[in-house]
Amino acid sequence: DAKTTQPNSMESNEEEPVHLPCNHSTISGTDYIHWYRQLPSQGPEYVIHGLTSNVNNRMASLAIAEDRKSSTLILHRATLRDAAVYYCILGSGANNLFFGTGTRLTVIP
Amino acid sequence: KAGVTQTPRYLIKTRGQQVTLSCSPISGHRSVSWYQQTPGQGLQFLFEYFSETQRNKGNFPGRFSGRQFSNSRSEMNVSTLELGDSALYLCASSHTPGGPGRWAFFGQGTRLTVV
Fold first, then answer.
1. Which of B45, B60, B72 is the mutation pick for testing A, counting most A CBs within 10 A?
2. Residue B92: its chain A contacts at CB < 8 A?
3. Residue among B43, B45, B105 whose CB faces A46 most closely
4. In chain B, how many H helices and how many E strands?
5. Mind listing the pLDDT tens digit for each residue in A15-49?
6. How far away is chain A from the Cα of B71, in angstroms, using its nearest Cα?
7. SS3 sequence, B68-113?
8. Nearest CA-CA partner of B30 in B75, B95, B87, B89
9. Contact B33 A51 (CB under 8 A)
10. Which residues pair with A33 in a beta bridge?
11. Alpha-carbon distance values, A76 to A2, A65, B18, B58 (Å)
12. Own/partner pairs, A54-59, CB within 8 angstroms, 24+ separation
């Protein structure tokens, strides 16, 4: 399974944008880029996913590099509720996800 | 619409025993997957079922098994429990295993403690 590399932790001030990077240099042509997050004491929650083009939804934006070897999850205005571990995952399927260690996001009031 | 339901939420078992965990997916979802989460190993994929057939399997010993019923509900079983099996077991469901526009919904998990 293709691997992803994410920083262990990041901090952001409340109401500021957050850019969470993910490197995936061995991505295959059929791999989608999925982002999930896990809030304390909860199961993971879907955030966004994409294949080649940038994607937007009500939670976040996903910017995918032209060579697809990296991507960035963008939270436009961080809130305290966004404090979580964010996972960047590659895969062609929706429900056989191989999680890495993720990035722990701390939001400072 | 109800989310993914896992039962029980908490369980304490003794080494050597076996345990069965249950997962009811979101109505209409036919793909169910199981994951194990521990502080040391993080979130690890166990297996995925679709239409009562196992489609994918992670790197776990044969003591870990599962099945899916015709109503898409799934159970996972762990036999001969070891202390290292103490973990949060998460179930996820999705409409189908893959394709654009598909993503998984996770339950709250079952916290298993082996003593």
1. B45
2. 43-44, 95, 97
3. B105
4. 0, 11
5. 999 999 999 999 988 888 999 999 988 999 999 99
6. 18
7. ECCCCCEEEEECCCCHHHCEEEEEEEECCCECCCCCCEECCCEEEE
8. B95
9. no
10. A50, A90
11. 28, 19, 47, 35
12. none
Whether residues A96 and B44 touch (CB distance < 8 A) is answered with no
- At position A77, the amino acid (one-letter code) is R
SS3 (DSSP) at A36: strand
pLDDT band at A2 (very low <50, low <70, confident <90, very high): low
pLDDT-derived band at B101 (thresholds 50, 70, 90) equals low
Residue from the list A43, A94, A99 with its beta carbon closest to the beta carbon of B42: A99
Mean pLDDT of chain A: 92
Q: Which of B50-54, B66-70, B87-91 has the lowest mean pLDDT?
A: B50-54
User: How far is the C-alpha of B107 from the C-alpha of B88, rounded, in Å?
Assistant: 11
Q: What are the backbone dihedrals phi and psi of residue A26, each rounded to the nearest 5 degrees, phi first?
A: -100, 20
Cβ-Cβ contacts under 8 Å for B20 (sequence gap 6 or more): B75, B76, B77
- Most A CBs within 10 A among B38, B44, B106, hence the mutation to make, goes to B106
- Nearest in space to A37 (alpha carbons), one of A67, A79, A3: A79
